[in-house]
Amino acid sequence: MSLNETPSANRVHIGFFGMRNAGKSSVVNAVTGQNLSIVSNTPGTTTDPVSKAMELLPLGPVVIIDTPGLDDEGALGELRVKKAKQILNKTDIAVLCVDAKRGMTDADRGLVELFKAKDIPYIIVFNKSDLLEKIPEAKADEIYVSAVEKTGIHELKERVARLVKSNDEKPLVGDLLKKGDTVLLVVPIDSAAPKGRIILPQQQMIRDILDSDCRAVVVKENAVAQTLADLKATPAMVITDSQVFETVAEAVPRDIPLTSFSILMARYKGFLETAVKGVAALKNLKDGDTILIAEGCTHHRQCNDIGTVKMPGWIEKYTGRRFDYKFTSGTEFPEDLSGYSLIVHCGGCMLNEREMRFRSRSAQEQGVPFTNYGTAIAAMHGILARSLSMFPDLQSVIE
Q1: Each residue of 222-258: b (16+ CB within 10 Å) or e?
Q2: Nearest to 97 by CA among 73, 135, 66
Q3: How would residue 158 be classed by pLDDT, with cut points 50, 70 and 90?
Q4: CA 88 to CA 84: how far, in whole Å?
Q5: Is residue 17 within 8 Å of 97, Cβ to Cβ?
C-alpha cells in the first residue's frame, strides 16, 4: 500500500439498507456506476454484506456497503439480518431504500428508529419512482429515484455528500508538534512484519508528521541509543511499537516525550480515555477470569504472535495469575460481553472510528473494562504515566 492511498478505516462508510426487493443493489450500482452488486427480481439475492472501497464524487474516498434485506426469513435469513444490523456499527451514513409503490413498512420505520438511536445521519430513498403515476412531494429526509432510468441519482449523491460531517482529517500526532520538529519512530522488523512494507499505523504516522512540516526518522529498536547520539537536535518525541516499549524506554532519556503508535491510534479513534481507565482492571483480575483479546484485522498468526502469545504472557507475568482467553479478529466482536473480566483491543487501525467507539461503548454499558494493546503494555511495564505525559487532561485518570 502506498502512502497516498486512503485506508478503508479512514473512509466514509455508506450503508444501503432496506427490505428485500426494494432495489437496494440497483441503487448501489446506479450510485457507484459499477455492477458492484448482483441484481435480480428474486427477493433476497444479496445474501451477505458486500463492501467496496472506492472514489465517489462528490464525496471522495468512501466504502460502499450493500446489505441483505432486513425482512429475510428462516433461520438463515435471521443470521443475514443480524449481520446486516451489525453493519450499522460502522456506518457513517445510512441510505434506506424503499419500494416507492409499496411505501414505508413497519420494518422500514423500525430501521429509521435504529438510525436515530445510533445517531447515524440518513436519507430515505424511494426507488422505482418510474412506476408511480405521480411522484409525491418528498420530505426533508426523502428523495424519489429510479435506479433503472437513473433519475434522481445525481441528486442522491449530492444529498449523501451533504450528510457527511467535515472531512478535515484529525491529526494523529501533528497537533502535538511544531513546524520543523524531529520525531523518532521505532519500528521493529521481525517475523511478524509484512514483507516489503511497514504496517498501516506506521505509514499513517509518517504521513502525518510530513504533513505537519516535520521530520520523521525511522529506526529499529536496536538503533535508538545510537540514533539519539547522532542527532544534532533532540527529538520532539519518540513513538514506538508497543511490543518494544520497555526496551525503547530504557534507551530514551526521560526528558524526551515517549509514547506508542497504539496509544496515539486510540486517541485518534476516540477511546484513549476509556482505555486508560480500563487498564486499571489488570490489578483486580482473579485466577480463572476470562479475558477477551480482540483485533480489528485478520492475519496469519506467527509463533510469537502479539495477541495470542505475547499479550497473555505479559498479563500473567504482571499479575502473577492464570486466566482463560478468548480471541476475536476482523469484524467479529461479541454482543454479549458479560462473561469477560477485561477486554484488551488492538489499536484499531483497520476499523473506523464509529466501530471502535461502538466496541468501547458496548463494554462500558455492560460494565466490562476496555483497554488496548499500547495502554496495557505501558501499564504492565511501569511507563504508563510517561507514555501519556503529552496529554495533561489524562493525568488525573491514571491510577
Answers
A1: eebeebbeeeeeebbbbbbbbbbbbbbbebbeeeebb
A2: 66
A3: very high
A4: 7
A5: yes
Residue 35 C-alpha cell reads as 455492477
For residue 348, the model assigns a pLDDT of: 87
pTM over the 0.90 mark: no
Q: What is the pLDDT of residue 343?
A: 98
Contact indicator for 232, 180 with CB cutoff of 8 Å: no
Nearest Cα residue to 121 out of 85, 93, 98: 93
Backbone angles phi, psi at 357, to 5 degrees: -65, -40
Chain centre distance of CA 201: 12
Identify residue 163 by its one-letter amino acid code.
Answer: L
C-alpha to C-alpha distance for 146 and 27, rounded to whole angstroms: 8
Q: How far is the C-alpha of 298 from the C-alpha of 186, rounded, in Å?
A: 23
- Tell the residue number behind the cell numbers 492464570, with chain if given: 322
The pLDDT value given to residue 399: 65
Reported as a single tens digit per residue, the pLDDT across 176-208 is: 999 999 999 999 986 555 565 678 889 999 999
Task: Provide the grid cell at 70.
Answer: 432486513
Helix (H, G, I), strand (E, B) or coil at 160: helix
| CB 182 within 8 Å of CB 214 | yes
* 205-230: average pLDDT: 96
Question: Does residue 391 carry a pLDDT above 70?
Answer: yes
C-alpha cell at 183: 520525531
**Using CA atoms, how far apart are residues 371 and 347, in angstroms rounded to an integer?**
10
DSSP codes of every residue in 263-327: HHHHHHHT-HHHHHHHGGGGGG--TT-EEEEE-SS--PPPTT-IIIIIHHHHHHHHHS---EEEE
Please provide residue 11's backbone torsions phi and psi, each rounded to the nearest 5 degrees. -95, 155
